[in-house]
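Case 325 in the screening queue. Each case pairs one protein sequence with one candidate compound; here the compound is PBG. For every case the pipeline is the same: read the inputs, emit a complex structure as tokens, and attach any notable structural observations.

Predict complex for case 325.
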Amino acid sequence: MAFPVNRPRRLRRTETMRRMMRETRLAPEDFILPLFVCPGRDVMKPVSSMPGVAQMSVDNIVAEARETYAAGVPAVILFGIPEHKDATGTSAWNDDGEVQRAIGEIKERVPGMAVITDVCLCEYTDHGHCGVVENGDVDNDATLELLVRESLSHARAGADIVAPSDMMDGRVGAIRDALDQEGFHNTAIMAYSAKFASAFYGPFREAAESAPQFGDRRSYQMDPPNGDEAIREVMYDIEEGADIVMVKPALPYLDLIWRVKQEFGVPLAAYNVSGEYSMIRAAGINGWLDEKRATMEVLTAIKRAGADLILTYFAKEAARELAGK
Ligand code: PBG
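Case 325 output:
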């Protein structure tokens, strides 16, 4: 039946009606806040390409975690900026490293907060690649062992979830095996399964000081045009034992968030990455759009596409906005 019988505007007439008819609802529980942990005390070093984001020493990380948890956000994901970098990223499995200490402190002082750790070597290697470099490329199998060491160190420190973001083949299985052998069968894995070689990571590389010193990441991160391959990547990670899978970035890949959710129905995270954050922030600062509205619209779209969890630098502000604060 058509117009004039059908008048969709009837259900949009007032805010109350719109509230009743809303199909997708964001909640603070949907969000995970990424944090950058650096050495030192009382350090708060703003990231110029990400206004509102800063590298923080452990003490300030704890304060930020406390505020974020109070706003209703249940989880943070930690990235480390180590004092020392070398060819194999040995600082990544230093039990006394920045991330490891931050896990312990957050767990002690904000006990309800779920702590996720990013497992990758690019922040820890002097060449900035996500693994061991042999003949100008990252050696997959030699890297697995190092990712395992890093994951075990995070698990020992008390991480609830480890999140490998390196895109080596077989890393989820290798990490699951090692965790189980060491008695960490309750440490969950959130796999960056369909992670694309994206221009939208630009600002993050300043934040994490992790830009590759030569070449790029296209031999391990996915080629942006590939959707079927993303489905295979997710399937392999589920088979290897991933508890949560991820699509990253979020906005240019909403179709894949949808496909992964439809195809597998497993817990799904989407990473609203640094470039997606900075675009909105920059436009907001310039007065080119309403930053709050743009943020909520984007986060809602990611959830509507099928994401259960959204990693976003807007987590705290968005949670406060939802609470009307
Ligand atoms: C580490 C890693 C990156 C991001 C998350 N983990 C950068 C990269 O792969 O170059 C990007 C996050 C963001 O842009 O917000 N490999």
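Case 325 observations:
- The longest helix spans residues 140-157.
- The two ends are 44 Å apart (CA to CA).
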